[in-house]
UniProtKB/TrEMBL annotation:
The protein, known as: Endoglucanase
Reaction(s) this enzyme catalyzes, per UniProt: Endohydrolysis of (1->4)-beta-D-glucosidic linkages in cellulose, lichenin and cereal beta-D-glucans
Enzyme superclass (EC): hydrolase
One MF annotation (Gene Ontology) recorded for this entry: cellulase activity
GO BP term, example: cellulose catabolic process
Source organism per UniProt: Carpinus fangiana
Amino acid sequence: MGGKYCNAFRGLLVLAGTITMMMAIGARAAASPDYATALSKCILFFEGQRSGKLPSTQRITWRGDSALSDGSDIGMDLVGGYYDAGDNVKFHFPMAFTVTTLAWSVIEFGESMGPELQHALEAVRWGTDYLLKATSVTDVVIGQVADPIGDHDCWERPEDMDTPRTSYAINQTHPGSEVSAEIAAALAASSIAFKGSDYQYSSALLERAKQVFDFADKYRGSYNSSIGQAACPFYCDFNGYMDELLWGAAWLYKATNEDGYWNYLRNNIHSLESIVVRNINGNSFVGASFAEFGWDAKHAGINVLVSQWVMNENSSNADPFILNADKFVCSILPESRSKSVSYSPGGLLFKPGGSNLQHATALSFLLVVYAKYLEVAKKVVRCDYVVATPTRLIDVARGQVDYILGNNPMGMSYMVGFGRKFPRKIHHRGATLPSIHAHPQKMGCRDGDYYFKRQGHDINELTGALVGGPAEDDSFKDSRYDVGQSEPTTYMNSPFVGVLAYFRATSSK
């Protein structure tokens, strides 16, 4: 058969398969979810994760003050910040990524947030106020607070904690470039988010970002070695720190427009052209770097972020940042022959490993942001024979959002407190145990075991929390024992804030 006819026939077969897949993935209820309410709850969640002295404006009122002596072991004030998930440890690597993506959500979609913009900025500031404390000593970055082994051994309210609150420092002889550079990225991105509303604070964030980035770059090394068991196996850096250094440089260039940061990106771009190694349940998983974005791997985020100004300055698609951003899109599109993700029968995007919604939310955020950049530049993405318009990218992201909010075979929203049916037995200490206001007596390390094991619903609602999500067959256990499905994390919610803001604005048009 002639080549062009072969290609045409192949195209028809692929089209038929694509239509079948998209009927499953695109199947949604007639009415869209209430994106505005979902956005409000998504931001509210961060108040439930606050550590430190709570303000009078605190809206999740079952929480109380906690960890008010953090940093005292090294003579620093490290009160504040966020607990990353259902435990009471302050892991600064994922916390900084949470702040970076929250700030990016505000930068791209703040104008679409309506009255929730102020709450989003408050969520960013709760993080940046703390990161300023963690970087207040020159050439020292605090990489983590609390001994995770001791913490994870107790099912205990944050208000009652009596496990070791050890402070783990990064310095010249014990470097941690990944956590330091991620903090620099968070501070730089946040400086942009606050530039229009608090210029003095924005300037302070930017100056600190520069200092921390210089420290991360000058004293190179992984916090895996410097912090050791405090970081691993919980939030090990599996793929090296060069992506964080470029991520930090990219945000500093966006914040300053200084040539030095742009030259740093150009001179080190080769380090992004690599494979990424991730740990999946104790096993190594190797993937293409351009397809990865999350608390550990920043590659796709760098390419999408940088593509904005490259598109504006260069009409060619041959720029490596654009090429890799396009390849990222092709790795996601259901109809793409080069996709590296899978989809459940109901249409949820999956990558290997637990807490899968971290991938669905982060990658959907990049799709929406890149679609926005493509629209302005009047460009499309070509995946072999597939031509993906910005609208197509938005449609894929919308499918993920709608699935998460309840348009799925289980009919379940995976955001706590949203919709009629949502997870009610989440893996989260504060939600599971009686509030300190209802039960002011101290509860010790083992006193919480009864509440963890009981079959009843959570005593407190952690409104807005996204949990890890369903299995690849769309089933969901709603069990505290299934950590991968039922535990919430800040870095699942943070990119979802931007995605929900976008759909809140566009669905009302």
